[in-house]
Amino acid sequence: MRHIDVFPVGDGAGWTHDPWGAELVDGRIYGRGACDMKCGTTAAIFTFLYLRELRDELQGRLTLSAVSDEETFGPFGARIFQNTIRKYSAIAA
């Protein structure tokens, strides 16, 4: 399972750049979620697509999961995954 959210900003105090600004400064991107799980999620999607192409040669079931509120364990993403989907799937960390 991958997550596609970011940890909440809070009151914004202490940030040197707008946390939602995605500002490019000296070749670096500043902002929430600029790198958090983006590469891992992208790799998982491409792996899923590749394995889907091989589905006739493989046995079993392949499921791609990504949640949008893993950081806060909200009621509509990570919690549903834990309480519902996990009952029907094998999970590898």
In short:
The chain is an alpha+beta fold and 93 residues long. The protein has helices at 38-53, 78-83, and strands at residues 2-3, 23-25, 28-30, 66-67.
- What is the overall silhouette? flat
Overall mean confidence score, pLDDT: 78
Give the class from helix and strand content and strand pairing: alpha+beta
State the end-to-end CA separation.
Answer: 8 Å
Q: Note the run of SSEs as H and E.
A: EEEHEH
Mind telling me the C-alpha Rg?
17 Å
Q: What order do the strands of the largest sheet run in, or round the barrel if closed?
A: 1-4
How many beta-strand elements? Answer: 4
Q: Biggest sheet, open or closed, and with what strands and sense?
A: 2 strands, parallel
Helix content: 10-25%
How large is the count of helical segments?
2
Topology overview:
Blueprint: E1 2-3, E2 23-25, E3 28-30, H1 38-53, E4 66-67, H2 78-83
Parallel strand pairs: 1-4
Antiparallel strand pairs: 2-3
Overview of the molecule:
This protein is of the alpha+beta class and 93 residues long. The chain has helices at 38-53, 78-83; strands at residues 2-3, 23-25, 28-30, 66-67. The strands form two sheets. A two-stranded parallel sheet has the order 1-4. It has a two-stranded antiparallel sheet with strand order 2-3. The radius of gyration is 17 Å and the shape is flat. The mean pLDDT is 78.
